[in-house]
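Structural biology now treats backbone shape like a language. To illustrate, our science desk offers a sequence and the tokens encoding its fold:
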Amino acid sequence: MMSYILNILITILSSFFQNMAYTGTLVYIANHSIKRIFTRRFVLCFIIYTLAIYFLQITNEHFMLFSLFIEFFFLTVIAFFNSERNITQSLFLSIIDFVVISLIQTVFLVPFSLCFSVDTNDITSVPLCFVMILTFIAVILLFSFTPILKYIEKAMHFSYAAAIFFLLAVIIILLYILITKSEFDMLIPASTALAIGIFLLVFFLYQSMTGYKKKQELDDYTIYIPVLNRLIEDIQKKQDIYNDQLLSISQALEEKDDNTLKEALHEITEYNISQKISYQFLHLQNRLLAGLMYAKTTAAKEKKLRFDITISDYTCPCHCTDIELVDLVGILIDNAIDASHENDTIFITIDRMQDRFLFRIENPGPKADSAFLSKIFRPGYTTKEHSIGHGVGLSILRKTIQKYHGDVIVSNTAHHNINNKTYLCMEIHI
């Protein structure tokens, strides 16, 4: 009698911790909160799921794949009825939930199987009960102290995410067969299916990452399209001004009106002097970089700063993506503009060093001594008066440069024709 009661108690504990790990985690992932777990709807879903899984466990020996699909069905329904997710998202989250929990179970199940005789279909097994309890605790720790939720949300944007996680689930099942079945007739088909599953998994992962990068680049391009549109509009406006001025000169020549001609020439001269901007960067082959240079030149002009731009190579060869290059150049130019004062001149050089892109920017700045160099790339370090939101640009820049094995050179230069100011020079090769 005592043994019977003990078996019932172990069965209840095993079922509760196992099923709560799957369903509770799923609802938490779907809502980013545990509030829905304490609702009547979830309790009802949990009871139905527990009864269904109990039946599947006692028949799992003969209907393993069928049981897998039934379990996905119940998990999908639970996610759908206990969150605001649609049916597709619920299915995807149920697959993720199954993979994560099953992997954690496997981590504990393998050593327990080596030390004890564990029958995964025997829910009255004491070692199996311990595995379920440890899995439940590990799940709580995992979601409490790691950013796994953030990565799950990112994974939902992958084009092949559902296929990837479904394959992971199948691979887990096949590994289970290989571990628990010693019969030769099960070994060959399970091993073959496992090899095929791993191959498809690698293929889908590659395709997913490629698709994600293309989508990211497309999203980044849309950010800079307004900059290019503004560039085109401003050039069209300037072209209209020049056309009007040339028309005035043409009419003055036809009428032989020297005064009108002198006024028109004076107007053109004054306008050109007021611009004080060289637009040679418009010939850069990297159109995004050209657009950025135009936007930053306009921003510098509004702060009454002058850009002295030297371009020795217009091809812009680099090892990083166009978006990354624009981000790096933007960080350096923004820092230079923020550190400069009215009527200062910022020197910019664009060149190439073998097969790498060279960008150098010089602005009035502090002495590049060892103390300065030891702090400049630290996250959060800034010399700006209002430091909130600043101090991360150069840290990001260095990480990107290191990613492509490039160089960052910080030094001081002097331009004696400009009041002998000390200039801070930052040069990147990427």
